[in-house]
Fold this sequence. Notes:
Layout: E1 12-16, H1 23-28, E2 35-40, H2 45-57, E3 64-68, H3 73-81, E4 89-94, H4 96-109, E5 113-117, E6 129-134, E7 137-142, E8 148-152, H5 153-157, H6 161-188, H7 194-207, H8 215-235, H9 244-255, H10 262-277, H11 281-291, H12 293-299, E9 302-303, H13 304-317, H14 331-340, E10 348-349
Parallel strand pairs: 1-8, 2-3, 2-4, 4-5, 5-8, 9-10
Antiparallel strand pairs: 6-7
Helix pairs in contact: 3-4, 6-7, 6-8, 6-10, 6-11, 7-8, 9-10, 9-13, 10-11, 13-14
Amino acid sequence: MSLPSSIDVPTLVRIKPGALDRLGLYVHRPGFRAPALLISAGMVPELIDRGRRSLVEHDVTPVTEVPVTDASLEVATDAFVALPARCDAVIGLGGGKALDTAKYVAFLARKPYFAVPTSLSNDGFSSPGASLTVAGRRRSLPSRLPYGVVVDTAVCRSAPLPLWHSGVGDLVAKITAVHDWKLAFHATGTPVNDLAALLSDATVMQFTAAPTRDPEGIRLLATALLLNGIAMEICGSSRPASGSEHLISHALDELVPGRYLHGLQVGVATYVVSRLQGQGTQRIAGVLDRAGFWDTVRADPFDRATWLAAVARAPELKTDFHTVLSEGERVDEVAAMLAEDPVLDGCFRG
Length: 350
């Protein structure tokens, strides 16, 4: 694990209803006037118009506007090369592809980055890495945390329900990720940063106070995902937020690319992994149940054989990343779990 020489945290954080309509003020106030604007291709036109209008109203004129359809290293580097010299900041507006691309462009250009997510499907909007494809394979590339995070909670609340559940699934993963981190310490000596681990665990505890899709629940989820990004920055590792449950999700991405939302994969994997770890299972199941997570999964169940293949494949993805999956063959145990656990009833087909 490499520790950062300094901790980079967001300077501006706005998590409130109507924040999108004040985007221009948030960009103008610290002195930025000529940002690059990267937006999700196909995003609701009204949301784009609101962002543009706010920028114009506060004398902020984007030097370029780039619709992002593919979050790849190639797209990001092309956008970086095309940045006008007068660009003084980068804004990512929309979903994960636009945000990760904008984040990496800002990193390459050494410009401040503003993250403006329109949904809360995972913690990527605030993480210190950019999730991009490199030669067709998904990679997490080093970047920096945003200078500014602007979350319009009313906009995020109106996003499709599966995106909300995806964010909830990605958040509860912190419980199993931290436990895997401690397993790695005892098995291989992997250092554990106690502050990062405590912060990550606290974010889930905070959210359990209101895991519902109302204004307070949206605010708590946004705050929790943001703080997880800071936990990763503190320790210079993804360990506080990503463990064996994420390895299973990455394996699913290789087997059935783009088939399921990341957080839905991770949320189910978190419950399964918690049983393998022998800890946190009721807590995880309870939060997911109260959030309505299982209903979304059952509406489009996973393929059982593919899922078991992902469990078998997962430990091979990072051989130097010790987790509970490193401690013996688990496929038969998971297969029995999928067949017998009433919590998972209806979550798998085949």
